[in-house]
UniProtKB/TrEMBL annotation, chain A:
Record protein name field: Amino acid ABC transporter permease
Entry's family note: Belongs to the binding-protein-dependent transport system permease family. HisMQ subfamily.
Localisation: Cell inner membrane; Cell membrane
Upper classification of the organism: Bacteria, Pseudomonadati, Pseudomonadota, Alphaproteobacteria, Hyphomicrobiales
Keywords: Cell membrane, Membrane, Transmembrane, Transmembrane helix, Transport
Residue ranges of the TM segments: 20-40, 52-73, 79-101, 142-164, 184-204
Species in which this protein is naturally found: Bradyrhizobium campsiandrae
TrEMBL record, chain B:
Molecular function via GO: ATP binding
Bilayer topology term: Peripheral membrane protein
Family that this chain belongs to: Belongs to the ABC transporter superfamily.
Described function: Involved in beta-(1-->2)glucan export. Transmembrane domains (TMD) form a pore in the inner membrane and the ATP-binding domain (NBD) is responsible for energy generation.
Record localization: Cell membrane
Highest taxon, organism lineage: Bacteria
Species this protein is from: Bradyrhizobium campsiandrae
Keyword terms of this UniProt record: Amino-acid transport, ATP-binding, Cell membrane, Membrane, Nucleotide-binding, Transport
Gene3D superfamilies in the cross-refs: P-loop containing nucleotide triphosphate hydrolases (3.40.50.300)
Record protein name field: Amino acid ABC transporter ATP-binding protein
């Protein structure tokens, strides 16, 4: 046993980098995919709508832990390939992000009245111009609070990656706490770090909401 | 040649046949008002003219072109046909100026430098030059509808369609919108209106078209039609609309 020192604090901060890295990876790949899913969900082709809905439903129904296990332990069994942990984790978090963000954004797009598309079409705008300049800005504003809510979930959800050996913030907390026998102090610090990560997001979303809603 | 030629148009929503063979010509510069009871097919007909709705059979030509044939230039066509809706449908996230200049800029009708001047010009024509920097929700219903009209005018359309544009307005705001439309009529704009404003139909329109059960039931100049309706359906409609 040893006492809690600066080294322990540093190791918590070091682990924080993994937490951030996992979130960034999940968003980098998951957000574009989510946009695709959302657009598929409002497509005029019923087959595409149905397919996207089924995909989203499936991913949302599987626990995040299940996704992680599937891509790390399942791939060698089903496909006979050993996937590096970082790939498995990235794929799992990407799909998780895509499914939830996709459905959130779909809701935002649906909440903009059909007549807004029509008004754009009647002025001679292309479907893409209607989406880009009329629908998307309004949908973004409507989707912002649940989007940030999901980001906060995602940040905390990265702790599950510790199961596959990633020493991110929660796992580092475990290690430090075991070494120092100072669980209260350690976990309070861990909690504070998660809080520090999530708070700016919430504040940023609030200011963005105000800015996007200049009319009020 | 008529600007708008409608030939035997049929349109069904589910099991309801809304248009049962409508034919109608509108000449350039003409003001045609379509009246009739709810469900008579007037709004549907209007929406068919700029291809917001498809037709099941028959054809509609505007400036000689088939509206419902596969049109690679549907966008260009729509730039020349303005439509104003009952619910205004302004873009709530954009200021009045941007509401007006968005489409002209994106379609390349004007450049960035001319945008402000264009917005000022069309807003002046609807009497709202001072609202150029307002948000839509800061305006009254009548003002919003006038901005919607200005937004169409910015595309310099050859034909304007009005779909019950005063029906959502408080009674005291109807007049300001009708005045703008009257001014447009005087400037020679070809206009097709669906309206419940019988006074406007009587005083401004060149021709009244009475639709009933998905057909053009009766049509003619307003003075004649209102004084001597030929069909009992029109007579009873005029009586009930008073």
């Amino acid at each position: 046993m040893r006492s809690f020192t600066l080294i322990d604090l540093v190791s918590l901060f070091a682990a924080l980098r993994w937490t951030v890295a996992l979130v960034v990876l999940a968003l980098a790949f998951g957000a574009p995919l989510a946009l695709g899913l959302a657009l598929g969900r409002i497509s005029r082709f019923s087959g595409l709508r149905w397919g996207m809905a089924a995909l989203i439903q499936t991913i949302q129904s599987v626990p995040l832990l299940g996704l992680l296990f599937f891509f790390y332990f399942g791939m060698p069994v089903f496909l006979g390939i050993q996937v590096p942990a970082i790939i498995a984790v990235t794929v799992a978090y990407t799909l998780y992000t895509a499914a939830f963000l996709g459905e959130i954004w779909r809701g935002g797009l649906d909440a903009v009245k059909q007549a807004q598309w029509e008004a754009g079409a009647c002025l001679g705008l292309s479907a893409w111009q209607q989406f880009r300049h009329i629908i998307a800005p309004q949908a973004l504003r409507l989707s912002l609070p649940p989007t940030v809510g999901f980001l906060v979930q995602l940040i905390k959800g990265t702790s599950l990656a510790s199961i596959l050996g990633f020493v991110e913030l929660a796992r580092a907390g475990q290690v430090v706490s075991a070494a120092t026998f100072q669980p209260l102090l350690t976990y309070a610090l861990v909690a504070a770090l998660y809080f520090a990560l999530c708070l700016p997001l919430t504040l940023w979303s609030r200011s963005l909401e105000a800015r996007l809603d200049g009319s009020r | 040649m008529a600007l708008v030629e409608i030939r035997d148009v049929h349109k069904t929503f589910g099991k309801v046949e809304v248009l049962k063979g409508v034919s109608l010509d509108v000449r350039e510069g003409e003001i045609v008002t379509i009246i009739g009871r709810s469900g008579s097919g007037k709004s549907t007909l209007l929406r068919c003219i700029n291809a917001l709705e498809s037709v099941d059979s028959g054809e509609i030509r505007v400036e000689g072109r088939h509206v419902h044939a596969k049109m690679p230039d549907l966008k260009q066509f729509r730039q020349r046909v303005g439509i104003v809706f009952q619910a205004f449908n302004l873009f709530p996230h954009l200021k009045v100026e941007r509401n007006i200049t968005l489409a002209p800029l994106l379609t390349g009708r004007i450049g960035k430098s001319g945008a402000r001047a264009l917005a000022e010009d069309v807003l002046t024509r609807v009497g709202l030059a001072d609202k150029i920097d307002a948000w839509p929700e800061q305006l009254s219903g009548g003002q919003q509808q006038r901005v919607a009209i200005a937004r169409c005018l910015a595309m310099a359309p050859h034909l304007m369609l009005f779909d019950e544009v005063t029906s959502a307005l408080d009674p005291e705001l109807v007049g300001e919108v009708l005045k703008v439309m009257e001014a447009m009529a005087k400037q020679g704009m070809t206009m097709i209106l669906v309206t419940h404003e019988m006074g406007f139909a009587r005083n401004v329109a060149n021709r009244i078209v009475f639709m009933h059960q998905g057909r053009v039931w009766e049509q003619g100049p307003p003075a004649k039609l209102f004084a001597n309706p030929e069909t009992p359906e029109l007579a009873s409609f005029i009586a009930s609309a008073k």
